[in-house]
Automatic annotation (TrEMBL):
The keyword Cell membrane applies. It comes from the Bacteria. The chain crosses the membrane at residues 12-33. The lineage of its organism: Bacteria, Pseudomonadati, Thermodesulfobacteriota, Syntrophobacteria, Syntrophobacterales. Belongs to the bacterial solute-binding protein SsuA/TauA family. Its main location: membrane. Keywords: Cell inner membrane, Cell membrane, Membrane, Signal, Transmembrane, Transmembrane helix, Transport. Pfam families: NMT1_2. Signal peptide: none annotated. This is Twin-arginine translocation pathway signal.
Amino acid sequence: MMPNSLQQLPAALRIAVIAIGWVILVGGMHFFLNGERPPANHVLMGYMPVITNLAAPVVDYATREASVRFEALKFGSFAEMSEAFRSGHIQAAFIIAPLAVALHQQGVPLKVVYIGNRHESTLVQRKDLQCRSLSEMRGKTVAVPIRYSGHLLAVKRYLREQGMEPESIRLVEIPPPDMPAALSTGGIDGYFVGEPFASKALVSGIATRLVDVEAIWPKFICNLMIVRDDLVRDHPDWVQTLVTASVRSGFWARDHIEDAVALAARYWGQDPKVVSYAFEHPPGRIRFDLYTPAVEEMEQVAEEMRSAGLLDGRPDLSAMVENRFARAVKVEKVSSVDKVLVQ
């Protein structure tokens, strides 16, 4: 439409046309600026800043000058991360386990190649509640990171095993970074999340520890790593490097807690005192050695999803599990963070 033609339109319509044009222009700029692809030897990894995903910042740091760069992108919610993976904007994601099952069922081409550090999720309660068990939270409101989370499944599983109704505890979704504030304002009575978000409330004194996840679900899987099928197909050596470095990052952190805390706190933008508390309370809690994905464990997650009404049918989960990369990793001590790439 020519300028003089635009001027002949009624004022309201003219404003609408200009507004639509502006939206299109801004949208195009957004796509241009955010749709830029990384270099060919550059892999983008999405993650949330929790201990189960410690490998993400460690591998990012260790590959800053490597021939293949693995860059960690921190997300504010799992929903945003899943959409970035679905769209291909990121090629790998440290993501909450049930959401990986849901993405697979929806046809997103992915493989589970690594299980994040385990036994690092904690349920905290408002300090004034003084409940002694999860069953005493009946009628209370507890936040979980997302509906498709192992934390929701763990609560539902516990209630079932205790013979309680599934809705005995009201579960709501709140992104982990917002949980401490929601608790302090009284919007919720407690929350269940990966560390260090629970420790933030414990250190500040607004909450008390109620349940460690391993007490109600031994070997609980919080997050795992998924990679896109085309990365496995076209660059299996890159995937091996990524998985090897992820596994070795856990053993490095286990033996160099102070260094791991400093690196994680810097990447996460968290108080080092909070991160240190999460790593060491209670001492030796976190499991760094259960990193190999297994179809049986994913089927257990899927079964809990079906029980909670989050999954229909029985998808072939063997098609989403690729454990050859994790099985190829040699377990040994790692002397420094730069050595996570050396095997």
